Amino acid sequence: MNNLFYVVPALGLIGLIFTIIKSRWVAAQDPGLDRMKEISKYIADGAMAFLKAEYRVMLYFVVIAGILLGIMGYSNSSSHWSIALSFVAGAFLSALAGFIGMRIATKANVRTANAARTSLKKALAVSFTGGSVMGMGVTGLAVIGLGGLFIVLLMTFAPGALSDTQEVARAIEVLTGFSLGAESIALFARVGGGIYTKAADVGADLVGKVEAGIPEDDPRNPATIADNVGDNVGDVAGMGADLFGSYVATILATMVLGHEVLGTNGVSLADGYSGFSPILLPMLIAGAGIIFSIIGTFFVTISENAGLSTAKVQAALNKGNWGAIILTAIATYFIVNWLLPKDTTMVLRGTSFTSNGVYGAILVGLGVGTLMSVITEYFTAMGKRPVKSIIRQSGTGHATNIIGGLAVGMESTMLPVIVLAAGIYGSFLCAGLYGVAIASAGMMATTAMQLAIDAFGPIADNAGGIAEMSELPGEVREKTDILDAVGNTTAATGKGFAIASAALTSLALFAAFVGIAKIDGIDIYRADVLAGLFIGAMIPFIFSAFAIRAVGEAAMAMVEEVRRQFRTIPGIMEGKGTPEYDKCVAISTNASLKKMLLPGGIALVSPLIIGFVFGPEVLGGFLAGATVSGVLMGMFQNNAGGAWDNAKKSFEKGVEINGEMHYKKSDPHKASVTGDTVGDPFKDTSGPSMNILIKLMSIVSLVIAPTITKMHSADIHKNLLQKQEDIHNLLKAEPNQDARINQFLLENADTAAMFTLHRPTLIEKRSSKEFLSKNQMGS
Amino acid sequence: MNNLFYVVPALGLIGLIFTIIKSRWVAAQDPGLDRMKEISKYIADGAMAFLKAEYRVMLYFVVIAGILLGIMGYSNSSSHWSIALSFVAGAFLSALAGFIGMRIATKANVRTANAARTSLKKALAVSFTGGSVMGMGVTGLAVIGLGGLFIVLLMTFAPGALSDTQEVARAIEVLTGFSLGAESIALFARVGGGIYTKAADVGADLVGKVEAGIPEDDPRNPATIADNVGDNVGDVAGMGADLFGSYVATILATMVLGHEVLGTNGVSLADGYSGFSPILLPMLIAGAGIIFSIIGTFFVTISENAGLSTAKVQAALNKGNWGAIILTAIATYFIVNWLLPKDTTMVLRGTSFTSNGVYGAILVGLGVGTLMSVITEYFTAMGKRPVKSIIRQSGTGHATNIIGGLAVGMESTMLPVIVLAAGIYGSFLCAGLYGVAIASAGMMATTAMQLAIDAFGPIADNAGGIAEMSELPGEVREKTDILDAVGNTTAATGKGFAIASAALTSLALFAAFVGIAKIDGIDIYRADVLAGLFIGAMIPFIFSAFAIRAVGEAAMAMVEEVRRQFRTIPGIMEGKGTPEYDKCVAISTNASLKKMLLPGGIALVSPLIIGFVFGPEVLGGFLAGATVSGVLMGMFQNNAGGAWDNAKKSFEKGVEINGEMHYKKSDPHKASVTGDTVGDPFKDTSGPSMNILIKLMSIVSLVIAPTITKMHSADIHKNLLQKQEDIHNLLKAEPNQDARINQFLLENADTAAMFTLHRPTLIEKRSSKEFLSKNQMGS
Q: Positions of the site: Determinant of potassium dependence (chains A, B) (predicted)?
């Protein structure tokens, strides 16, 4: 095996070493006063308790699903029982990624609060380093896991084989189990964490801010610890598992398609790596992306005398992000041209392309990712037209605020979808379906940096909570608020990025699925496929319905518990009685674990039912429907939620509606709080789950593809023949058919040869007179 | 030409005669007191002013679009310039249908109010007769127009031709212009009317009920006339044009597919009608449906001593509706078996079926329609779980009420989509694509009755308004309120029915499009087609965004005008100064006309751009995306809106939340009013526009299909050849390929013949050795 194979996990290892070093640095920082340590311990304990409970539930799932997978793999010659081990490895590493993230976040939060007692620079350093630990940890684990497992599988199933052999196909098929494991844990972590955090947040707000009139994060509010735990389990652990899953799925989809890339002569590429270069490329780009992300983190710093400036913090993060992106864009040019065979035409399913095309596709991917972030920011940022329109509509009450937000959310789908469609089309033009996949891999290359920027937000948010609960001076909270505000913006743009990458990844998985299922396409003009399209498109609606309802119901339970504590614990409102924080933590924990099962189950089971009962082409229609509707619902909900949030925040500094100034506690502000509360489950529970939902369903389909194809082979065969006949009839009816057929025969001699070889059979069956009479009739 | 052709318009004529007789009966009723006449004149004048203004805008559109269509038809040999005339005829009749409906509604409203001074039985008779006039008028015009035009076109283009000839294809292609005309007017009427009615409604409520504290329909409120005008232009004229368009589109789609139905020998059916029986069938069913709907109207009556019972009114309407449906179900059995050739296998694009299968598909259609109504009723009815869950969530405020309603709306898509998918699949199994189309034609057969039931609601609503404004005794309002409440339920179920029929019709149009575009299918696995799917699915989101925003903005303008009048007209609040009703009418009129152009334009122009630039297969992907997402968004918005409305209405009699009773003016009630206001544009503007949107885009595509196919013929040809090659490769890689290919060759001798005829060319090009070496490689 070429040494290059070992470079991939080695790059991942560098990421992990960085993680360990930085993690130690964070732990070495001063956690501050006793009161701070005490509160941060509450939060850390609550978070750990949730994670333990969550992982216990998932353990059952992993064991059962693993056994079923093993049986399926065992009974199909294109797969192997060890797909179960691969699945368990993916699930374990995904859970570990979430764990690492939460572990560091619950250390970094209190240390950020303490650093904020000194300077903003220091606070940024601690919180962003916390985020980086998570970013490098998640991506490092993914690259090591995927790269290492691939080596093991190749050695087991295909030692020394060429890339386009059945043995390698089998190794990759087993590898899909890894992605399935990662993505299933991601779904449960994201949905469970999303329900947890919003139930606590909405519950704490409704009864604390609205009913009791005490400020946010007030230690007298029994739900306040649960609220801060929620930031960690939803925004940190949930997101970590989510991006781990996305990252793995993207790389894997590109590998599956890369396996099908051949030379023009129809055999493996002569690339010096036994034709493996298109398979190795996405892994190498991912590994290199970790290094560039590490370099990018060094740009993220502000000067000691920067003052209390949101803009400077944002600029520092942007510098880091752009640094990583530009380095990746430059480096991939060399990686692509060095790895892929030079001046050689590659072919994937009839589309030819060169290494320049592949690089072009990567640039398209980076462009799509950037544009998505910019557009998302426009629709959710303060001071821009969309948020201002919601503010204006808050002037006439709750209802018009809601109408305004819903309209913004729906409208916000237009530009991203056009960018996405153009990206699909453009990357396809560059390098066929491999281009679409590699575009998404390029976009995801800087995931480590994205994740660092994303995870820094909830750490800062938590730091603010700890400062408040520890009754630190206002200037501390001021500094953490600056970090938190920047975190809100990066959270919104991160979601735009996530949904775009999910869409491209799903398309790549979709293409991989068609290849593995051995069908000629997904024809939605077939009634059963169209029915599948409808069912698929409905799934994101029903999934969202269950997710947001879960938040609503869990929040109501939280409200009742807090009301009970206010009523029954003596001296609680005077700060003398200690609230029973753990009871609220338990409510959020139980509710989220119970209520994540139904939506999660739908996501896992529905493609199984459709696939096994109706076959791969209907399942393809189902996937397309789910992907399209999931992308739209994701954008709609994320952006509506983000816009509502910032419309509410705008009231803090005062807003002008029809020439009159309005501030907090005014009627328009109350209307804006309604919008924000509606937006909470939209943007933090159901919206961000959409991208996992569509990827998970695609991966489930990919994993079962060989089995369902075998089951439905007679139908598939019949359809292929029918299709062939239809196409023939259409070609026959065309004007100038003879000249065209001639040309086709010249170009596709072997198809014609097949028919000519069987000529005798035909002559017996029908006279040429009969053929000609039918032929002249037209279709 | 067989006499049967003339039966179709004759049946329509019976409908029109019924319309005239009943219309005279309504006009002969007593309009009551002078005050009532005065107010009803205000409403009638306002409505007529809007219709005039609206039709003036549409006139420009019809002239311009007509000229473009004429040019397109002239330049394509499969079409003809007279498609422009066909388009104008469709547009004119659609507008006329709306006009007739509004004319009768503005007469029936005041007479219903007057009848309610005597008895409920009388009031029901007047209002339902008004509705029936509209129902029979709309369907009568549609059947006469379509049937008559078809005769004229056949006589012009294809006198004496067999059904499967190019001449008949051309006549049907020209006929699609009629449907395009009808559906474009429907879109503008529905959107314009929807914006008008909700701007007036929301505006009148916000400033009247909330700010000034005066009851609904109070004559002191300047917006109250506009509100009542809105019921007529939105719920009557808009809906009339809408259902006219749906009805025509459904019949037409079935005719297009019927034209492709052949005998097993590949030539026209030997049915005694030159093969026209599958084309005539949908028109005859529609014509017969009018007669059964007329019979059904005689069931709709209650006894004089029925008391003030909502249930009895509902039961009377149900009896009429069920009567019409059952009669249709029975009669179509005889029509189908008498018209279609007995014991003959018919073939459409490779699928065989018999007349029994066709009848089965009609039953599937009727079943789907009924189930959709039942499910919709469940999700929006008072006292059922969904509405009760919203009521409970109103207990914790505006935000949870909104979350609850959104969750109900999203959840409500599940069962209808499953029913729809099963309907698509089931009707396809019965009779192929013709089955899908005829299922939708069967479902639409009783449109006249549906429309009568639907239109009676706004008439009763208006009657209540007139009673209130004329200060008639409370018992009058009590009677009209009963009719109004029943009208609300029928409105919700009618929408469920409309979206289901639109989905089936769109699929039929979609199938017709594939045939006319001469492509082999719509393969969403192609990157460009998938990009089209994304863009298409985004259209309903952006359309909804513009529609609901238009309502929000027009309502705000209305609020400001009413505030101005309250401020500047002396004595207005004491009932001494006369409000300037016409100013408010003008605001709604102008706003709706201006704001309907953008969404309407998107619907018309986007399929043109996609089709002309990217060709028919991408346009097919676009249509599929738009259909799926439009159906889901339509259900989501209609049902959320309906559920919010009834959650609010439940407070009138008092509701129990956590053991406590809440009534009007309580905090939970206020939260429910917020939900209702958000739901208004959902359920009356954007939601019901979805079904026109998807049908209109399908028809636009059908009309341009021959032209874009010609433009993109080289690409289509290349794709067909590529596909043929792909299929060949897949077949080649299959196990037991030789036996299977042999069997295929036996069954499809002429495909093979084509290849063998060209054998010499091939032999020159490649040696068989080369072929064999490639052939053994696998795919």
A: 491
CA separation for the pair A123, A152 (Å, rounded): 43
How is residue B266 annotated by DSSP?
Answer: S
d(CA A159, CA A174): 15
Q: Tell me whether A559 touches chain B (CB under 8 Å).
A: yes
B550: nearest Cα among B605, B604, B602, B597: B597
Distance to chain B for A513, nearest Cα, Å: 10
In terms of Cβ atoms closer than 10 Å to its own Cβ (0-12, 13-18, 19+), residue B160 is exposed
Q: Give the count of beta carbons closer than 10 Å to the beta carbon of residue B458.
A: 30
Q: What is the largest CA-CA distance in chain B?
A: 102
**Residue B74 burial (CB < 10 Å; 0-12/13-18/19+)?**
middle
Which residue spans within A223-345 are E strands per DSSP? 262-263
Residue B448's contacts (CB-CB under 8 Å, 6 or more residues apart) are B15, B132, B135, B136, B138, B139, B140, B289, B290, B293, B294, B324
Model confidence, pTM: 0.90
- Please return the burial class of A311, using the count of CB atoms within 10 Å of its CB with bins 0-12, 13-18 and 19+: exposed
| Contact between A547 and A539 (Cβ < 8 Å) | no
Helix count and strand count (H, E) for chain A: 26, 5
What is the amino acid identity at position B218?
D
Q: How far apart are CA A402 and CA A643, in angstroms?
A: 11
**Chain B contact for A609, CB < 8 A?**
no
B537 interface with A at CB cutoff 8 Å: yes
C-alpha torsion A508→A514→A518→A520, nearest 10: -120
Cβ of B425 under 8 Å from any chain A Cβ? Answer: yes
**Which DSSP symbol is given to A230?**
H
How many CB atoms are closer than 10 A to CB B435?
A: 29
How far away is chain B from the Cα of A206, in angstroms, using its nearest Cα? 8
Helices and strands in chain B: count of H runs, count of E runs: 26, 5
According to DSSP, the residues that pair with A656 across neighbouring strands are: A661
Chain A CB contacts of B396 under 8 Å are 206, 555-556, 559
Helix (H, G, I), strand (E, B) or coil at B260: coil
Mean pLDDT by 10 residues, chain B (779 residues): 86 95 95 90 89 89 92 85 94 92 92 93 94 94 95 89 84 92 90 88 80 79 87 84 88 91 82 88 95 94 82 90 92 93 84 92 92 89 90 89 95 95 94 92 91 90 89 89 85 81 84 84 87 95 93 86 88 84 87 88 92 94 95 95 91 85 88 91 91 90 88 82 78 60 53 46 38 40
Structure tokens at A354: 């060169």
Give burial (CB, 10 Å; 0-12/13-18/19+) of B653: exposed
Q: What pairs with residue B655 in β-bridges?
A: B662
Tallying the residues shown for chain B, one arrives at 779
What is the predicted ipTM? 0.89
Q: For residues A119 and A107, what is the distance between their CA atoms, to the nearest angstrom?
A: 18
Length of chain A: 779
Return contacts of A327-333, CB within 8 angstroms, 24+ apart.
A327/A292, A327/A295, A327/A296, A328/A285, A328/A288, A328/A289, A328/A292, A328/A366, A328/A442, A328/A445, A328/A446, A329/A362, A329/A363, A329/A366, A331/A288, A331/A292, A332/A285, A332/A288, A332/A359, A332/A362, A332/A442, A332/A445, A333/A359
- Alpha-helix residue ranges (DSSP H) falling in A158-272: 166-204, 224-230, 239-259
A567 exposed, middle or buried (CB, 10 Å; 0-12, 13-18, 19+)?
exposed
CA dist B364 and B372 (Å) reads 12
Using DSSP's 3-state secondary structure scheme, residue B656 falls into: strand
